[in-house]
Every structure is written in C-alpha cells, then in structure tokens.
Amino acid sequence: MADPSETERAEALSDEQMKALEERYDPEVRFRALPALLGWIAGGALFILSCYHYYTAGYGIPQATTHRGLHLAFTLALIFVFFAAWNQPREPRRGLLYPLGMPVLDWLFAIAGAVSALYVPWIFNDLAFRVGDPLPIDVVMGTVLIVVLLEATRRAMGWPLPVIALLFIAYAYFGQAMPGILAHPGASWDNIVNHLYLTSQGIYGTALGVISTYVFHFVLFGVLATRIGLGQLFIDLASALAGRYSGGPAKVSVLSTAMLGSISGSSIANTVTTGSLTIPAMIRIGYPRHFAAAVEAASSTGGQITPPVMGAVAFLMIEYLGVPLTTILTAALVPAFMHFFGVLVQVHLEARRRGLRGLTKDELPVAWTVFKAGWLTTLPLFVLVAILLSGKTPYLAAFWGITACLLVLVIQNIVRHDVKTAITESVRETWDGFVVGAKYSLSVTAAAALVGVIIGVVTLTGVGFKIAYMVTSVAAGWAQSVADGLAFLPFELVGVGTLTLLFTLIMTAIVCVLMGCGIPTTANYLIMIAVAAPILNLLGVQPIVAHFFVFYFGVLADITPPVALAAYAAAGIAGANAFKAGNTAFRLGMGKALVPFVFVFSPSMLLVTDGFTWNEFFVATIGAMLGIWMLSAAFSNWLFAPLRVYERLLLALAAILFVSPDLYATLAGAFIALPVFLRQMAGRREARASSS
Questions:
Q1: Three-class SS state of 259
Q2: Which terminal Cβ of the chain has fewer Cβ within 10 Å, N or C?
Q3: DSSP state, 638?
C-alpha cells in the first residue's frame, strides 16, 4: 500500500496548486498578472476575438488573407500583454516605463506585431504586382513580423521552436555554404521575406489558416463544454462504469480520459483535470505513486488522438490531404482504441498482480443517476458530431456546438436561480468562457504562424526532398547489410524493400519524438510532415498513413523521457519520481508506439485507405490487440499468474509476431504463446484450489 503521507499530499493539492502545476509544465498557460484596467482591456480584446470567430463560423468567413491577418494581429498583440519577456512577475510594475503596468518594450512589440500582421491584408489588392518584387516597405514590414513572431513564440512556448525557425532561415540565406547535397544557391533577404511574408506558402499559409478557421472554434467549444459540466459528467460516468473492477481508479482514469479527450486536445490539461481525482484514488487502493502518475499521463496523451476534436491536427490533415473531416475521424478510430486498450490491459494486469481492489459501492456513483442529472450537458457534443457527420463544414459544426453550450448554460442558470440572477450569471459565464477560450488559443496561433516560416523555407529551398533522399539512401544501405547478413538462410526472411521502409520509419519516429520534446504536437506535426512526408511518399506509403504515423509519434513525446511533460505533471500530483513516472508512462503507451508501424504495413487498419479489405483489417487489428496483450503481460510479469523468465521471453517474441500484420506470423505467434497460456491456466486453477 502507498505511504499515507503520499496519499495526503496528493489529496491536499488545492485548485491554486493544480493551476501552478499546469503552468510549471505547460508554458502555454503561464499568463502574467495584469492590473485591473489593463486586465479589463485585454479581456475585452479576447472577448471581441471570440465573438468575431463565433460570428464568422456561423455566417461566413471573410477573404482568407484578411481573416488570417486579423486573427494574427490580435494574437500577437495579446501575447505581449499576457506573456512576460522572462519570468512572469508576481505583481504588475508601476512607473513611466510601465504604462498601465506593462513594460514600454512590450507595448512596442504588441503594436509592431499588430501593424505588420495587418499590412498584408491592407495591400492585398496590390499583392499580385508585388510578389516576387517586394517594395522596401514590404521588406521592412516582413522583417518586423518575423522578428516579432520569433519573440512572441519564445515567450509563449520557450526557445526550441524559435531556434529551429532561425536555423531554417539561416539555411535559406547561407545555402551556398552548406555541405554536399544540402547546398543550394542561397536566397537574398528580400527573397526570403517575399516568400515568407507575401505569399501563401509562409506565415499566412495553411497552418495559420487552419488555426484561425477551425481550431479556434473547437478550443472555444471545449472550454464552454467543460464549463457546463460535460467533463465532470465523463469522469462520473467512467467511475460508475469501471470503478468497481480490480484496480478500479486506474480504469476510471483510462475511461474518463478517453471520453474527456473527445472535447480536449491538451495532454497536460487532461492530466491535471482528471489526475487531481484519479491519482489520489489510485494511490489509496495500493498502486505505487509512480505507476498512478504514469497511468494518468499515458491515458491523457490519448486525448489528442481521440475523435472528434483531436487538437488541431485533424483540421490540418483535411487541408493538407484534401479529404473530408469524417475521413480523418474514421481513420483515427481504431488506432485511438488501440492506445486506450494497451493502457487498460497493463492497468488490469498490474492490479491483478498486486491483488488490488476496486472501489466499493459506497465510493461509486450510480450510472443512471449521473446521466439523469447531467444528460443536458451532452447535447452540445451530440449537436457537434451530428453536424460533422452530415457533411457540413467543421466551423459550422463548431458554431452550432458553441450555440448549444450557451443554450445549456442559460437553462442551467434558470433552473438554479431566479430570472435576474440567471441572466447575470449567464452573461458572466459567457464572458469568462469566451475570454478563456481565446486566451488558450494564443500560443498555438503563434506556433502555427512560425511553423509557416519553416514550411516556407522548405518550399523555397527544396530541402525536404534532399533530406528524403539522404534518409532513404541510409535506410537502403542498412537494409542491404541486414539482407546480406541473412543470406545464409535457405529462404528470404524479409525483403530489402520492407527493411528499407522499416529503418526509414524507425528514423522518422525517433526524430518525431526528439522534436516533440521541445515543441508542441501541432508544430511538431507540421514540421515533420514538411520534411518526412516526401521520405515516406518515396517508399510508397499512402499520404494519410504518413500523416498519422508522424502525428502519433509526435504525441508520444509527451510521455517519452527526458522531456515527458504530461508524465512530469502527473508525478507532481502524485508526489512521485518524475523520471520513473515518465519511463512507466512510455511503457504504458506502447500501443501508441507499436500501432503506427502496424498501419503502415497494413493500411486497412485505418479503414479509409486505398485497397482496404476486411480480411487485412481483421488480421492486423486482432494481431495488434493480441500483441499488445502479450507484451503487456511480459512487462507486468503477470498473465493469469506470475510468469517465469522464459515465459516472459516467449510472450515478447509472440507479441512481435502478432503485431506483424501477416496471417502466418499471427499463427506462429499463437503457436509460441500457447504453451505459456496452458501453464498459466493450470497455475491459476491450482491457486484457486489451494485457496478454497
């Protein structure tokens, strides 16, 4: 059982401490304190931004450049209001150098960012005559925007992404000095600014367009849905459905996070929200504190891959791939299930191994009672999903989902209060929801705009194809070496082409995880698609499969040491060793690491790929589930009873064969695992007989 002091620590964390914990590990929510007047002004600007997006979602979005410019201008100005240059001061400063409590330099950055962002929409009608031959004022404005954007992203997210952007800009400028295949003629600063600022392939490109057109609305929907109680309903329902079983609180964590992930795309926010309830409960029934933290972190990272929201990536995919949102959501269903299945299996086996109980009847809510009390909060989600499935635009679905949230909010206040108080509370909560929703979108907008710089350099220099050639050449060399080493076999175990693809995937996965250690998932996905997509396309991987592969390994970075931010946040709640929690979370999230390889070699798992067959789907899916189960057992040292060393090795080997999307490999895995199963079943019967 857990040390009581650890349990007390986990339960003693207040709302303020939870907020501080989220801010510690998530730089995107480290907002500085503002004096009253500036706070009201900034809040009003955020409210106006949300109202603008709410209106345009329902009644039509303006010309693309105008819309993106307005969104970027508001965002850059507000970032310098809410994010300090260095450490966030506890109290606003006063004096001539701090008008309204904010440093003069921040005011200058805010104004420069807004003006330079609005400049392109202002000259839009003349762009056709200026692209490729910018005026001096165009270059000045573009330079200002790039500098301001670098600083804004640094403040909101830290150094990694700005440093990467600067390296790409340097590559574009110093192309002639680059070695070997990476060399190119180089571009003048005027040409760089022209491409990044005046064309749709840079800052004002697809990434910013998706954030301003789709993502903002869904962030706002998620905030409002949480405020009306939908998130709490999910947690209560999960407790009622899964809490009674062995190791119940851990299973509640997995199930509640899976449901909460449908309206939230933030791993750290999910961890802190549900972890404040589930982690103390897990510690209380006997889970080690690091394991409790790992369960919550591994579960919470599934929020980004769970339909219908999936953070920002689903909407980026529909733009880059040119497919309907329903196609992306359908493709995400089975892999998302596999992730939560993997975590749930390991949680169950760990509970069985430790003999942990479930929650008692007195500790559990009644499912029907919970749903009866909160069913109204599900209305916005049903409206959102129904409109998405009807084929309407995602932003129109978000508009009606937000409208449904506001309607539910008013109804809840009318039921709880008199008419006057209900109106007052509804207005106040709408204001708060719109302000918070807009505030949470600031950092992701800055990141998307700066990623536009990186993508612009890729298209300007063609470096993506050069990297693709280098990676595939290295992978082909390794593959040939392995094939030569296996030449003594009387049969071909695996072809050179398959090995080349495998080594390429491994290298791509490693880079995705490393990139994800310093930058958010959305930015990681955008950069890796610009660089890795050409690599995988050269090897015949379907575009949607390549996008999902990169996306999944970018998400995995949140639970991959040494920078496993979701795991570290959970460890803070549990009072656990952060690195140990991160290692365990990575092991629990192995389904997310294995499944992408499965659907690359067997695309039918995504349901919507070319050449889909039910036979291939069932072989790949069932094999993956069995493989995850066997590998989980090997890690947990428990199947139906304690495992011997050789049994763990056999199960690990069987898992590899099960995961391989081939019927004969699956049958071979079953053959290897069968003796272990038989001995385990016999051992369980003996244990039951002796206990009785």
A1: helix
A2: C
A3: B
